[in-house]
Specification:
Number of strands: 0
Mean pLDDT: 89
Distance between the termini: 31 Å
Shape: globular
Strand content: under 5%
Structural class: mainly alpha
Largest sheet: none
Helix content: 40-55%
Order of helices and strands: HHHHHH
């Protein structure tokens, strides 16, 4: 998925395929490459954040019961405000460890 983040259509196709095979790993959106960059970081670096968010919400719809905000706190806390606006109901979900969003935030050291 990292090498495919060069244009919006390729990123969309890769995320769609990733979600069909790895829905619990968010289509490998948070998987790191050898340079320790996630596919999410690369997509936002190569595209406008709004364009990347459109692709992400298309393939990871806000109504899905996936705790995406837990992953954002862990892998991209600087994007938390952008994601909470798109996934407001995800605040109430528990992750695979049974943690609420507050617990994941506290565990990660997030203070704001």
């Amino acid at each position: 998925i990292h090498n495919i983040c060069v244009d919006g259509e390729s990123f969309s196709a890769a995320l769609e395929l990733g979600m069909s095979h790895y829905p619990n790993q968010f289509g490998l959106l948070f998987k790191k490459n050898r340079q320790e960059q996630t596919a999410l970081q690369l997509a936002i670096d190569k595209h406008e954040i709004d364009d990347a968010m459109k692709v992400i919400t298309k393939h990871i719809p806000p109504q899905d019961d996936l705790p995406i905000l837990h992953q954002i706190i862990q892998h991209a806390p600087d994007l938390f405000e952008d994601f909470i606006g798109m996934y407001p109901d995800a605040r109430f979900l528990r992750d695979a460890k049974g943690r609420l969003l507050l617990h994941a935030a506290l565990e990660s050291g997030m203070t704001k």
